[in-house]
Amino acid sequence: MTAAYDDVLDTPAATEAVGALIGRAWTGAGEPGCFVVLEGDLGAGKTTLMRGLLRALGEPGPIRSPTYTLLETYQPRPGRFVHHLDCYRIDGWDALQDIGFRDLLQPATLVAVEWPAKVPGLAARADLALRLEPVAERRRLHVLARTALGHALLPGRGHRREVKP
Ligand SMILES: Nc1ncnc2c1ncn2[C@@H]1O[C@H](COP(=O)(O)OP(=O)(O)OP(=O)(O)O)[C@@H](O)[C@H]1O
Ligand SMILES: [Mg+2]
Q1: Nearest C-alpha to atom 10 of ligand 1 is from which residue?
Q2: CA-based nearest residue to 123, from 142, 98, 100
Q3: On the chain, which terminus has fewer CB atoms closer than 10 Å, C or N?
């Protein structure tokens, strides 16, 4: 069963707070291997959400956009990893494998990808798929959970709805 959550985020802090909820839910789930995609146009707030997620996991250092480096890796606590990718400049599966994507999906590791649509079929594999859309000065958030782990990470307890696949 697929589950969804929709919200309107009034400020960057609200976007970070959603990331923090997902980060804490990942910790609550025992920090298993996890794959998240973040869709939305340039400046939609994808990296902002990741900043909230990483801070909630205890990452103390700077959180940089992977726009130019393609991949930023964090170890917020010993043995726990977060890989933050930006596929904006990646074109297809071969290019994604060239940066070692397959090796990133490991236990105790959360992999989050901005611009997953650059790699056909990638988003469909995600535990949790987030979409951010600017609406005036705010952001509309739409989240889909397709796996049991995704359900555990879905924000907005009490506001989620079940949708038919
Ligand atoms: N809910 C919100 N309301 C208003 N502004 C927001 C909100 N969330 C994030 N922003 C702002 O949107 C801007 C762009 O955010 P961010 O860099 O996270 O976007 P992005 O989706 O990662 O873009 P890119 O595709 O270029 O990497 C930032 O200035 C951020 O503060
Ligand atoms: Mg970004």
Answers
A1: 12
A2: 142
A3: C
Write down the H helix ranges in the chain: 12-28, 46-56, 93-98, 101-104, 148-153
Ion ligand 2 — residues with CB < 5 Å: 46-47, 65
Q: Residue 51 CA: which ligand 1 atom is closest?
A: 18
- Residue 35 amino acid letter: F
Q: Is the CB of 146 under 6 A from ligand 1?
A: no
* Cβ neighbours around 32 below 10 Å, total: 13
Domains in the chain: how many in total? 1
Helix (H, G, I), strand (E, B) or coil at 91: coil
Residue 165: pLDDT band (50, 70, 90) is: low
Q: What is the mean pLDDT of residues 86-112?
A: 96
Q: Average per-residue pLDDT in the chain?
A: 94
Positive or negative torsion for Cα 101, 33, 60, 143: positive
Cα 43-46-52 angle, rounded to 5 deg: 125
Per-residue CA distances from 73 to 27, 30, 109, 119, 128 (Å): 18, 20, 10, 20, 19
**Structural domain that includes position 119:** 2-157
What CATH number does the domain containing 12 carry?
A: 3.40.50.300
